Amino acid sequence: MNAQISFLDGSFSLIHIPLNLYSTFLQPLLQILLPQDGDESPTNGVEGLNLDNRHGFLNISITPVECSVVCQSSWSENVFEPAISRLPRDLAKTVSISKDTYLVLSVISGGMDAGSRVMELTSPLALAGIPIFFITTYYSDFILVPSKDRHMVVQALLARNFEFIEDESAFVSPTAMSHGRGKSSSSDPPSTPPPSSVAELQVRTFALLKKRNVTPYICPDLSLVQCSGRDISELVDFNRRPRLSRQATGNGHHRSSWLDHVDTKLYTSLISVLALQPKFLSITLAQEDAPSLLIDKTLLGAFGDSLVGDTEGDLIPIFLDLVNLPLEATGIVSGVAGKLVEEMRMVETGVSGELSYLSTARAGAVILPNEQSMKALEVLKPLLVKE
Fold first, then answer.
1. Which of 50, 72, 97, 303 has the most CB atoms around its CB within 10 Å?
2. For residues 312 and 317, what is the distance between their CA atoms, to the nearest angstrom?
């Protein structure tokens, strides 16, 4: 597999919001999705936006398990922490912001189907004992790793024949990654030695899931599509649209607004859908990509023609409720995806081209075409049901 992996700028927080408090946090969710840069904005000066006032990375996911947010740590401090502090103490305890910050790795890869890519990209880090979160989007893959483990991540990538192409911020792999365990020079090794092979990793993963009573399940009548907003450069009327702003620069010209750099039709649709608390919606904003969405198929009508991609798709998520596992649990993504790829022989049949994975704060979702989801459930359940 040829892959380029880059560290995105900034440090990120992982936020868990229970569904019963979704309406309470709708304003903070909209505030972060629609960033304002005016002098009177409560988020004025908050880090994490590029020159166009767009996020370098943001994921908001509403699932049947939770509402989960990955955002720059400065946004969690300035937007979400104040909202939590206004809650009664018993409710505030049910909302969580990760104590440790995370780095986001952007992965651009070719020459490998999606299912195998999930396994190959996550296994080197899992074998090095590094806990990760994984987000598959329409364009790219993103891996969250603890900021404190950056050195271990670099060493794990180098051990898999990745080479620097920038100053320890981006790597490229000209050759396929091996499955052996890489050397780690961390001064704080994990208390339990990492697994020595992918097979051992899978055994440990399912033993941990079974011990914590994690049972995979499918939500009836929930079917997803993975699609994208339009690239702003493709919007015909963009260059003709007058650029108006409440604030003018010193030379009398209007300052470019955040709205000048987004598809307002798409964002209007998102606001409409978020206001209704969707059963499933995951949106990822990244600096190099158009907005990527994984959404409940019944929501398509709310977006009109603002989406591109296979809107006729029929993807089924298999949920793993990980509320009883610590955030630092390792190998979950790699172990589950790897086992499915092996047991279903998806590499040979070509089906794994559509396998994707979504990590949220307290859950994981393996996403497969409808015709493969029941077979995947048959593979997972025997491995997780206690005798």
1. 72
2. 16
CA distances in angstroms from 232 to 60, 259, 262, 273, 276, listed in the order given? 21, 11, 6, 21, 26
The helix/strand/coil state of 377 is helix
Phi/psi for 365 (5° steps) reads -135, 120
Q: Which domains does the chain possess?
A: 1-177+224-242+255-310 (3.30.2130.10)
State the angle between helix axes of 114-127 and 150-159 in degrees (0 to 180), rounded to the nearest 10: 120
End-to-end CA distance of the chain: 39
Is the per-residue pLDDT at 51 higher than 90? no
Q: What is the DSSP string of 32-71?
A: HHS---STT-TTTT-S-B-TTS-BSEEEEEE-SS-EEEEE
The Cα 354–Cα 369 span in angstroms is 7
Pick the closest to residue 337 from 162, 90, 141 (CA basis). Answer: 141
Q: What type of residue is 42?
A: P
| Residue 55 and residue 35 in contact, taking contact as beta carbons nearer than 8 Å | yes
Asked if 44 and 37 count as a contact pair (C-beta separation under 8 A), the reply is yes
Closest C-alpha among 76, 41, 57, 66 to residue 8:
57
At 289-333, the pLDDT tens digits run 889 999 999 999 999 999 998 888 899 999 999 999 988 888 899
Which one-letter amino acid corresponds to residue 214?
A: V
Q: How far apart are CA 234 and CA 286, in angstroms?
A: 17
